[in-house]
Amino acid sequence: MNLKNKIAIVTGAASGIGRSTAILLAMHGCTPILVDIQEEKLVEVLVKILKYAPDASAEVCDISNAVQIKQLVRKVTENYERIDILVNNAGIMLVKPFEETSQDEFNRQMNINFHGGVNFIRAVLPIMHKQDKGVIINVASVGGRLIVPGTAVYAASKAAFQGFSEALHYELKDRGIHVGIVLPGGTRTGIFDNSTTKLAKYYQSQCKTPPLVAARKIKEAIEKERFVTIVPSSYKLLIEFHDLFPGFFGKQLLSRLRPYLK
User: Fold this and answer.
1) Active-site residue 154, yes or no?
2) Positions of E strands within 3-129
3) Among 179, 166, 169, 157, CA closest to 90
4) Of 184, 229, 230, 226, which Cα lies nearest the Cα of 209?
5) Cα(47)–Cα(155) distance, rounded to whole angstroms?
6) What are the tens digits of pLDDT across the range 185-209?
């Protein structure tokens, strides 16, 4: 899809990958609608984007709330008359053993990482069908393929989102709507900011890829309507190794992480 003059909703746009993606899309001719729950940060990003996309806007929304999503999509449709692109990027992570995770914490991660994206798609699909065209990019995670301790709920939500996205890709492929999946890994964002465990701090120290790297791949996935993108590409080999030798992979993983599990 050519980005010029396209209307793109980007969730989780106040920081990290979403912020970089929204700015990059604006620089290449898109009009982004920034969506996040962090109002102050959202406004800061919008100020930067207005230099490139004067019709861009920002919408505060808790994407775990299906009613708020419907209202937002209705407002965007009324204001812009179309929605060409949806980048489902918003997500949270709480690094914690499953047995120490409350039901509320479990539900919150699933509602944002999985149900929120699903509800956004449900809301925009009728609009894209009327246009006979649209691109949906779902940002899952390498963490849904390479599972590590302390991330049971996060991994479950991202694995579910990838599986859902793949089925949707096939269902909509011949109807003019492209569904692509992006799996970032080791990206330097604020996703660990609310986690205080020793294990979380270790994971955070291993995340060194700048968000802009993932944003560029998301842009390419939109333009080339690519199905699956893993970023950085080095994780492709790691995933293959994991799938071919799961027992050995698991032993090596535990050997490295045991000091942080105590």
Assistant:
1) yes
2) 7-11, 31-36, 57-60, 85-88
3) 157
4) 184
5) 34
6) 999 998 888 777 899 999 999 999 9
DSSP 3-state of 91: coil
153 and 103 Cβ atoms separated by less than 8 Å: no
pTM, rounded to two decimals: 0.96
Q: What is the pLDDT of residues 121-176, one digit of tens each?
A: 999 999 999 999 999 999 999 999 999 999 999 999 999 999 999 999 999 999 99
Superfamily of the domain at 7-234? NAD(P)-binding Rossmann-like Domain (3.40.50.720)
What CA–CA distance (Å, rounded) separates 223 from 234? 22
Domain ranges of the chain: 7-234
Neighbouring CB atoms inside 10 A of 39's CB total: 12
Catalytic residue among 52, 80, 154, 170: 154
Residue 3 backbone phi and psi in degrees, to 5: -75, -15
Are the beta carbons of 86 and 136 closer than 8 angstroms?
A: yes
